[in-house]
Structures are given as C-alpha cells and as structure tokens.
Amino acid sequence: MGSVSLKIGDGTARFKTSTMCSSALNILMILSVITTNLFALYAFTSSPNLIQTEEQLHRQPHRSFSLISEQVSLILREIDKSQKKLAQIEKQLLGYESFDLSKPNIAKELKLFLTSHKLPLGRDSKTGLTEMVSSVGHSCEKSSDLLSRYMNYNVFGNCQDDSSLAQKLILKGCEPLPRRRCFAKSVSSKVKFLHPFPVSLWKPVSNKTVNWNGYSCKSFDCLNGRKLNRDCFHCFDLVNGYENQRFVKSRSKNDFLVDEVLQLGKDGIRIGFDIGIGSGSGSFAAVMAERNVTVITSTLNVDAPFNEFIAARGLFPLYLSLDHRFPFYDNVFDLIRASSNIAEDVGEKQEKFEFLMFDIDRILRAGGLFWLDNLYCGNEEKKVGLTRLIERFGYRKLKWVVGEKIESGKSHVFLSAVLQKPVRV
C-alpha cells in the first residue's frame, strides 16, 4: 500500500520565516507555562486546607491526602486543557484542517476525498490513530474555487481537458493535488508515431503525439521560434538545432562536457536526476542514455508540452515542481544536475533555496556528484550568497568556474561547478 498522509497538508506545507502569528504562538505557550506554574505554587502555598501542622496531619491523614489529590487533579486538568488549546491554535496557524467543506461551491468529489475515514479495524494499536485523511496540499485552501473546478467531473467518466488548471494550482502551491475518479484524455493512435529506442533519442517528435489544447502554439515548429527560457531556445529541434551538440561540445568556459563529468565520477555514475521547471527537452538524459546512465528529468509543462516530448524520446519525465519534496528515498542518486534557471524557479528568498539544497543533499549518495550547470546568479552579490550557502554543505569542489554573459545588453553572472558530496558520520 502507498503511504497516506494523516493530516491535510502534512509534508506539503510551504515553510515561511518567523511571522507575527508564530511569535504570538510562542508567547502564548510561554504565558501558559508560567500561569500553570503560578497556579500550582498558589495552590500549594496559599490554600488553608493544605497548610496544616504535623499534628493536624496525624489527626486527619485521609482528609489531607484527599485535598492534595484534588488539587493535583485540578492542576493536571488545567495543563491538559492548555495543551489541547495550544494544539488547536497551532493547527489553525499552520493551515491544517482549514478547508470549510460546508461551502456551497465545494465539489462533491472534493468533499468525499477530504472527509476523514475511520480505520476499518478501529484504533491502531501502534500509532493510536482511529482515522485517516487523504493527502492534499494545505495551500489548496487558498484556491478552493479552482480546486472545486478541478474536482468537478463525472465519476467513471472522462476527465475534462484541464491540465492547464492543474498546473495553475500546482504553481499556486496546491501540491499534491487530490486524486480523481475519471479517465484522463489520451491521444489517439499515438503509438504509430513513436520511434523505437534508442533511435527515438534524436528523431524528430511528431506533433500528433501531443494534445495541444491549452497551448498558444499548436506544433513544435511554432515552439522552436520562441525562446521559452535560458535553457530552451530551439530546444525541440533535435536535428538542425543545438540540442544534439549540448553537453558534448562547449560554447563557453562555463559549459562542462558530459564525458569530463563522468570521468570525475570514476565509473560510479549509473543513475541521475535532472532538475528544472520546463528548462529543457530531455537532451541531457538522452546524452547520458547513450552512455548507459539512466536519468530522470523533472519538469513542468510551462508554455510547452515538455513532459510529452521527453516521453516520446523514450526518456523518463517527472511532473513535479521544485517546492515539492522529491519522491525518492535517501542516498539513491549517483549524479544530480541543476539547470541554469533553478535559482530563479525557487525564488528570491535564500531559505527556499536552502530547502531545495537540503532535499538534493538527501537523495544524493555520499561520493555522488552535484552538477551546477550554468547556474544563473544575476549579479556578484547573489553569486556570493549562493556560494556561501553551497560551501556550508562541505562538498568537495572538483570543478568551479564563474563567468559572465551578456543578455539584453546587460552583464549577468553564471556559476558552473561539479561538487562531490562528503561522507558524513
């Protein structure tokens, strides 16, 4: 059985720096502890029923012990009530259990999915739990109208063509999305236009393998005329563009070659992870596949069908945003590559980049390689900040190059590096 989150939003919370709410909660907790202790001190020092002489205690031992027992029970009840109240306040501040299922615009399927379900065998003896709640990002509550549209469908019918709506929810922090009981739309006769592996790696992908609804372009030729991001300009042209030369021929000192990086790994590179959001068309995974290295490419369909294109090449796409915890176990990858846009995709706050870096560190094995490929730093100040953060992880610098590129008449700083994760005991 798959794992089940036992709280709405568990594991998917968007972490924030200290706020007024969190400070208020801390103050409330401190005041509660102080009040409880003062109450206990008052109870045991001021009560005339408890302050008795040794002679009175010998005369009325049962009554004395009874009074003490009552006071202790009262204190314990007050402490229990305070703890429960604090737990409820914490839930409200964090956004747990914040879905108002009584709203008239909440879809019936969403209500059914979010409603807690009693465990079939009653209370679990190991965890003490009696019910479970399906996992869904708690930020979804902020977009409940969009989420209801996403969950409004005919059960056992065909799903609406709402992939753009789903991605919009993900980009708003509504991740993971709730599962649905409808059949996803398929592209008819798609298999006729697919090439066998490994020929598929560099063969042009047919337009008929993609459902173009929701995109302004309706063909790969149209997409090749646009610069979607720094990593994708003519990136769908596998024959006449630069894609078939990437990672095997360099255009600047910041471009590392695949064979050089693999040599640094000393033949220990077997599986890898390519991280980005709509950053490329899977060419890194294709080049690595030719060298018997399996690479998973993380991407979203930002303005283009990246996932379908990568899959049509016979490669493995992973539809996932960078705010989501990577669905892999600890210490499993030999190589992780981060594309140039990764710092921008994460956001301006250093804490958000730290969350990403720690998750990368978690899934990369000791001795594995972390490849920063033309990481966009913007300016020297941001480069210094990113450098300091990276150095805090204690990785060994196998290659490290900082260079400048001119874009739109402005100079921008880029960092390329190959780092080796240390062994930590």
From TrEMBL:
GO cellular component: endomembrane system; membrane
Keywords: Glycoprotein, Membrane, Methyltransferase, Signal-anchor, Transferase, Transmembrane, Transmembrane helix
Superkingdom of this protein's organism: Eukaryota
Topological relation to the membrane, as annotated: Single-pass membrane protein; Single-pass type II membrane protein
SUPFAM superfamilies, per the entry: S-adenosyl-L-methionine-dependent methyltransferases
Main localization category: membrane
Compartment(s) where it occurs, according to its Swiss-Prot or TrEMBL record: Endomembrane system; Membrane
Gene Ontology MF term list: methyltransferase activity
InterPro entries found in the cross-reference section: Prob_Methyltransferase (IPR053223), Put_SAM_MeTrfase (IPR004159), SAM-dependent_MTases_sf (IPR029063)
UniProt name for this protein: S-adenosyl-L-methionine-dependent methyltransferase
Organism from which the protein derives: Pisum sativum (Garden pea)
